[in-house]
Amino acid sequence: MKILLIEDEAELRKSIKQYLHQEGYLVESAADFIKASEKAGVYDYDCILVDITLPKGSGLDIIKQLKESNSKAGVIIISAKNSSGDKIKGLDLGADDYLAKPFDLAELNSRIKALIRRRNFDGSKAIVVNEITITPDERQVKVNSDSVNLTAKEYDLLLFFIANKNRVVSKNAIAEHLWGDDSDQMDSHDFIYVHLRNLRKN
Questions:
Q1: CATH code for residues 2-121
Q2: d(C-alpha 99, C-alpha 105), whole Å
Q3: Helix 10-22, helix 105-121: angle, nearest 10
Q4: CA 43 to chain centre
């Protein structure tokens, strides 16, 4: 799952990125409004974590931009501004959740998982597609009740296909989902076929 973290506080941004990487997420980040607006406008994300108070602008305007562009990303506000006014403004603009600083990283992770389940998998903890059963919280895959060992990229690719099962997805979209914003600098997307072959073997 691909996350955009919009947070200007360097140490907090670093700790959140490290934690979420360890949990298996692909995390991109932005430290100010201009960079955040650019990334949110160009790339697709499963979840966007938005601080309200940013250099050069407001996180609330990022949320507004996302909703006006019909972004499918889930949005969680992470902000030291704990007033009910900011919370209501953000939720009214289309944010899905609000977490006041300081917060526990494990709670943030739980909220991200719940949000992705609600948006992509109808809130189910287990995703069942024919003979395949996936438990996203545990990153576990079973085929006909037998556990299947996938690499992190293979797992992400499988989940991406299931979340987009009724859509045609481009090679660029797949590459971006697996490798993040740096994928547009790659000369070739042949690696996608390698992962697809490995996934089919499993």
A1: 3.40.50.2300
A2: 11
A3: 60
A4: 11
Judge contact between 25 and 109, C-beta under 8 A: no
Helix, strand or coil, per DSSP, at residue 71 = coil
Q: Where in the chain is the domain with CATH 3.40.50.2300?
A: 2-121
Torsion of CA 14, 19, 20, 21, to 10 degrees: 80
pLDDT tens by residue, 103-139 = 999 999 999 988 988 877 766 678 888 888 888 778 8
Domain 127-201 -> CATH class: mainly alpha
Q: Which residue has the tokens 């576990």?
A: 140
pLDDT digits 0-9 by tens, 8-58:
999 999 999 999 999 888 899 999 999 999 999 888 898 999 999 899 999
Q: What is the pLDDT of residues 185-194, one digit of tens each?
A: 555 556 676 7
The segment(s) of the chain belonging to CATH 1.10.10.10 are 127-201
